[in-house]
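Long-time lurker. I teach an intro course on protein structure, and each term I like to show students one example going from raw sequence to a predicted 3D structure in token notation. This year I'd like something fresh instead of my usual example. Would anyone be willing to generate the tokens for the chain below so I can use it in lecture? Attribution to the forum is fine with me.
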Amino acid sequence: MMTVTYKTNPGFPGINFPVLHRVVYAHTIDGVPAQWQISYKDYIVNLWLKENCQHPYYHSPGYLREKFIEFEDDQEAMLFALKWA
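-- Reply from a regular --
Happy to contribute to a lecture. Here you go:
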């Protein structure tokens, strides 16, 4: 069962948007953008996501210095945070 929290936007009446839950799991070293610093932990996190998530999730953009996943499903976000945060 998917548990999603929605919010409204005054600019788009009648349309609900899912609240994304951000879970940071790593930071890069020496201020290097994340796309240039791939680690074994990134690989393991991706395997975990494929095996345990059934609903949409989004990776952080590569130009940032922190690595995070944003989840639409509340429960999957909580499970990921317990495992990786």
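Some talking points for your students: Strands lie at 6-9, 12-18, 21-27, 57-59, 66-71. Residues 6 and 19 are 5 Å apart (CA to CA).
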